[in-house]
Amino acid sequence: MSTLQTEQHGFKAHSDGDWENRAPVQTRSERFKSTNLADFPEVTGREVNWKFTPIAKIRALIDGPLEAGTAAPVVSDAPGVEVTHVPMDSDLVGRAGIPEDQAAANAWGQAGTALRILLTSEERQTVTVDRSGLAQNPAAAHTIIEAAPNANALVILENSGDANLTETVEIVVGDGANLTVVSIQEWADDAIHLASHNATVGRDGNLQHIVVSLGGGVVRLNPSIHLDGQGANGESYGAYFADAGQHLEHQVYIDHNAPRTRSRVAYKGALQGEGAHAVWIGDVLIRRIAEGTDSYEENRNLTLTEGTRADSIPNLEIETGDIEGAGHASTTGRFDEEHIFYLQSRGISEDDARKLVVRGFLFEVIQRIGNEQVEARLQEAIEAELQQSVLA
């Protein structure tokens, strides 16, 4: 009897039945999406998009009852900025995408209303959204940040204090608009924050999305940027510093859905202390229609002590051969001893040399914000982290 394997291993259905419907979705673009939580199966923690997340700590936000509007954010005033509240069944809601996980769908169904920030000024404006008055009760929120065609703005989401929040942030970038959205997480040590940032970028539009995660017990912030207009540009940057017992997770998705689009993704993180856990998953899809695409993504992790864990998974899917370029990179490791030796040879102590490396490592992302006051404050926060570390 022949034992030669002539078919692909695993090609035939298994004996448990319904094999085709049980096969896991491997492509980010094919994930199920719905605004109705009941349409999703129960989260077990074995799913590809949940397997690194501490489910037990966030279960109430995934499928439990949520409060809406427990603390309204404070939005700064600036020329060409209009702030309104719209119902969740409005045509203004859902233009940047709908939920692809249970926590986002739960927030969508219980947010009540959406806060809409409309930006129309063609002169660069800076808008801050202060969210420091949240409670510890499980809550839902929905925010729409919309840049009208040719608008130019920097929007900074300031998150601090207590939180037990699941939310969606929609970002709509009109044709020719230039928008930077910065989300800063400086929550209290036991805060929980789950966020889906969905963005659509129009023709020749530019979106720079920056995440800085420093505080919070569990932070899971997933940007999803859809380059839907020809010539659209999307940049996604992140900096994070995970301490003992802290879970910081970022799942980034870039969807090239039009010709001659460009994207850059760069996330950098430092980890210290027993149980510090960082998760980065980067998915880039270059669709068949997206000829001339230029894309690159990278994640770098610097582990400062023993007992830390960094999961880093870059994924790249290309459906057309007519592209300018595409690539990805991922590294996780300790200090480069050559860098430390070089600084020591200049009269700098070993401890100070290691701190300098960490500062420079993270500041490369932070300096992209474009606001000196915010950048200086974040530098001080990172300095405080370093002073408490074993490097001090």
How would you summarize this macromolecular structure in one to three sentences?
Residues 137-361 form the SUF system FeS cluster assembly SufBD core domain. 16% of the residues lie in helices and 42% in strands.
Number of domains: 1
Structural class: alpha/beta
Indicate the radius of gyration in whole angstroms: 22 Å
How large is the share of residues in beta strands? Answer: 35-45%
What is the straight-line distance between the termini? 69 Å
- The string of secondary-structure elements, in order, is HHEEEHEEEEEEEEEEEEEEEEHHH
Sketch the major β-sheet.
10 strands, mixed
Number of strands: 19
Total helical elements? 6
Helix content estimate: 10-25%
Global outline = globular
Task: Pick out the low-confidence regions.
Answer: 1-24
Mean pLDDT: 89
